[in-house]
Amino acid sequence: MASATILKSAFLPKRSEWAAATRSSAGRQATAVSLTVRAGSYADELVKTAKTVASPGRGILAMDESNATCGKRLASIGLENTEANRQAYRTLLVSVPGLGQYISGAILFEETLYQSTTEGKKIVDVLVSQNIVPGIKVDKGLVPLAGSNDESWCQGLDGLASRCASYYQQGARFAKWRTVISIPNGPSALAVKEAAWGLARYAAIAQDNGLVPIVEPEILLDGEHGIDRTFEVALKVWAEVFFYLAENNVLFEGILLKPSMVTPGAESKDKATPEQVAEYTLKLLHRRIPPAVPGIMFLSGGQSEVEATQNLNAMNQSTNPWHISFSYARALQNTCLKTWGGRPENVKAAQEALLVRATANSLAQLGKYTGEGESAESKKGMCNHVSGTVAERYRAVLSSIIEPQYTVKSQRGAF
């Protein structure tokens, strides 16, 4: 497949005054940003779907691991990477009783979108029955970016429109496209521009076919840099992303974001408290993210289960113009997977473990998480057993916080 950089070279829009103010404009003249916004006949539905996913006390379960990545997870508990084992694990996840009270959307891999549970029910139907909006990963993965400092770009634009149309017919109502930015490798201007342009083209195509695009330029945790360097890079990345989203006439009210939290590099000698992470991350959002965007669903990015929950809770201690929530994979699934261990007799305990993490993050979205009942192991991301009484305590607290109009049934939208 040809690089998106090559495909767009003949008609790449120049920087606007708005975007140029956030970075160097040397060698290029500013142009006015088009005010035309097009989302086709799906505009109203996109807005409703985005608001449904961004509903109070709920977030996204990211279970869109590729078959290869899912195989690594299964191998960690001694299982082979077979379709039957993948089906069994996915069935465990989507059939957790009451999951829809805390989870508003689930990102699926293509195999999962067309897959049935071990009981023969379509996975999409199982999700919808719990008022969980089905989503779909649409990118085709990362490949080396020629001319860069060992950086990557995300492929998948070819044929994206027809795939999105098919996914919509299958029941998906939102999409996800993940690209990455590496701080130790630069990031180069080329890599940032390529990531932003690809995300913008994907978002426009997804909206034209009825899918709410989740925009995810993940800034990797790798490196020894401090939190100020992460903040600096994030400012540049999000300035580029929203410039090209605007140039591609993307409807901001019909998108969701999946950013990284602003933290020091994983190998940094400096560690940040949840309050520091919240301060830097919210400062980034206020400087770069328009209030028209309905939801910001953070990725955990390698944080432990409890660490990701604590940081989310800290960000929700203030009033924000966006719904600030979670779109976690390992930070929701890690304990669940270990508890299951591939044994049928452990399914109930594993589902309870997932529910504990879902309810904890639901409380964090509401700014009401206290850490009550968390074990030392779960704080390290190494918990192998979860008591059902913990989930009961979380549910009791949650039920006293959420207003009646925010019940699950009232959140059903265009899906």
UniProtKB/TrEMBL annotation:
Localisation per UniProt entry: Plastid, Chloroplast
Pathway where this protein functions: Carbohydrate degradation; glycolysis; D-glyceraldehyde 3-phosphate and glycerone phosphate from D-glucose: step 4/4
EC number: 4.1.2.13
InterPro entries referenced in this protein's UniProt entry, alphabetically: Aldolase_I_AS, Aldolase_TIM, FBA_I
Any one of the GO CC terms: chloroplast
An MF annotation (GO) of this entry: fructose-bisphosphate aldolase activity
Keyword Lyase on entry: yes
Keywords noted in UniProt: Chloroplast, Glycolysis, Lyase, Plastid, Schiff base
Position of the signal peptide: none
Family annotation (SUPFAM superfamilies): Aldolase
Single GO BP term: glycolytic process
Reaction(s) catalysed (UniProt annotation): beta-D-fructose 1,6-bisphosphate = D-glyceraldehyde 3-phosphate + dihydroxyacetone phosphate
CDD domains: FBP_aldolase_I_a (cd00948)
Protein family according to the UniProt entry: Belongs to the class I fructose-bisphosphate aldolase family.
NCBIfam families per UniProt: FrucBisAld_I
Name of this chain's protein: Fructose-bisphosphate aldolase
